Structure formats: C-alpha cells, structure tokens
Amino acid sequence: MSGPEPRPWIKQLDVYVGGKSQVDGASEVVKLSSNESALGPSPKAVEAYLAEAGKLHRYPDATYHNLRAALGAKYAIKAEQIVCGVGSDEILKLICRAYLAPGDEVIFSRHSFMMYPIAASSFGGVPVEVEDTDYTTNVDNILAAVTERTRIIFLANPNNPTGTYISAAAVERLWRNIPDNVVLVLDGAYAEFVTADDFQAGIELVNKSNNVLMARTFSKLYGLAALRLGWGYACPEMARILDSIRDPFNIPSVTQAAGVAALNDLDFEQKARAHNTKWREYLRAKLLDLGLDPIPSVANFILIRFPGNEDKTAEKANEFLLSRGYILRWLPGHDLEDCLRLTVGTEDQNKGVIRLLKEFLEK
Ligand SMILES: *Cc1c(COP(=O)(O)O)cnc(C)c1O
Fold it and tell me: Is the pTM here over 0.90, yes or no?
C-alpha cells in the first residue's frame, strides 16, 4: 500500500523553525531572537483583549469592521482595500494562493525573509533568489531576474534579517520597470520603526498602481505577536480577491479589539519607537567598539558580523551567549553563518548582551 500522495511541491516542504525560546539548564532566559517588542504589548491592547474575553462564545465580526476602520483612519486609506490575516504570514500566503500556478516564479533577495520561499513553494511556485549588495536589496538584480514566468516579487523593506532598507525612489524604480502582471509585495513588517525621510512603506505606491500589495504586522512594534495579526493594503480588485480566499472568521474578536486599541495607543507607539532608536544606536556603537561589524539597521534588530578569527566565530559566540541564558539568532541556513541577529531589548538586556559579548571576545 502506498497511501495518499501529497502534491509534489508540498511533499518537499520543511517545517518552519522559529527562534529558540528555551535553553537547556537555564531557568531564566533573555530572548532576543525573534524581533519581539522590547516593551511588551501596549497596555491598552491588553485591556481591550481582556474586555472581549467574556464573549468567547460569539463568532467574531467576519468583516472586522472596527479594525479596518481604525487602520483606514490612521493611514488615510480606504477600509475596503484592507485585508487582515493571521499574521502578515497569512497575507503573504494569500497572495501566492491567488496569483501563482505551479511553475510560476517568485523573486526575492538573498538574505531576506525565509517565509518567501516557503510561501511560494507551498503553491508550486519556483523560488528565485537574487544576489543582494552589502546585505541590501539590489533593484537591478531583481529586474534582471524577471522572466515571463515571474508572478510575484517579495521585497522586505526594511529587510529581515539584515535590517537594511531601500529608498522610496528605489522601490518606485523597481515598480516602474516590472511588467504589470507581476505583483510587487512590499513587506513592511518593520516599517513602524523607520525614521529615515527617504523611506515609504508603500501606501503611495499602492494608491497609484494595480499590482502592488503592502503587507504589515502587529507583531513587531505593537508587540502583539501572540495574537497573529497582520494586514494588507492593495488596489480594490486585488483586495477583493484576497478577501474572497481568506477564511471568513480568520481574526478572533479578542485580536480585533486588541488591534484597534493598539492603533489608538499613540503614546505606546511613540515610546516604542523612541526606545528602539535609542538602544539600537547604543548597541551599534558598543558593537563597533568591540571590533564587531554591525550591519546598519533601521529596524528593531541588528545583524552582527563576526570577524574571520577562528576562535571568535558567530557560532561560538552563540554557544557562549546561550550558556548564559541569552538567545540570539544564528542563521547558518541563511548563508549567514558568520552573523548573529540581535533584537533590541530592554535597557538591562542590551547592556547584558554587550557585557557578555565583551567577556566572550576577551576570554
Ligand atoms: C516578522 C515578519 C513578518 C510576519 O510577521 P507576522 O507575525 O506573521 O505578522 C513578515 N515579514 C517579515 C520580514 C518579518 O520579519
């Protein structure tokens, strides 16, 4: 008996491995491996979540009216063009499900988000990885990879795991030079952290196009990773398509309520952004002092390159930090075996990680 046979492209998928959250033997760990919020969730979001808890027997609002309205008001965009998902991961999958046939090509940059090849492959798409330059997206390399089979381009901006970004002008140039049957996905998971003047998350481009999808998340700056809430913004036709293939009740009512409260908690948002900018700059300066090579970041994490020295590798630093209960992200599977990715933490955590790295390098 051979049993049921999955589709060939499904059969070869690997299970996604997230950042570690436990260390053998350590009772208290400092988790700086998944780019989670240093300040926790917005207290107003927690309050709104709890207030909904008594209504768990009710189905959620399938159109998440209040959440769409709050997003629409905050960003001055039309609520009908917003689609919410179970994390922005769902938005990335919906776009593949809607626009990919087996054999179609999906382009993304080397050293970018590992969900892109997974999302593409799970619909039979062919992942096409293009070279970046200095850990930064290279628009010309993406354009050179476009073929008749290209259907989607994923662009994480700012990029994860490198923390770099490309300007609004560079994104616009990319968009202007791709065929209009190719969807350009602007994944702005870290957009809320960016303070650079020449950056745009994608709203302006969506407003003048019919082939751009902006994806955003509540998991990072808003600190609601556990609730799995993301959203997409696209032209009316694309938004309608995505809306028609999502699960009808994909966003729980507690999540909808927390999302609205988080969007309205401007005080928390400002604090989170200011904390991030301050401590990211602190970490960068200290890492440079230690002789390490932090890649310039606009997000809430820093990719740290370790110099070639045999004893002081990223792998060994990772082992040392783990033995002290500090979890960073070592990414050998990303072709980044000489790097660790460090999420900006609390003041104590940031000072702690620098102290430990110093100890590691001096021992
Ligand atoms: C974290 C992250 C996401 C998705 O987060 P969700 O929790 O699924 O909303 C999407 N893109 C990038 C680049 C990320 O780093």
Answer: yes
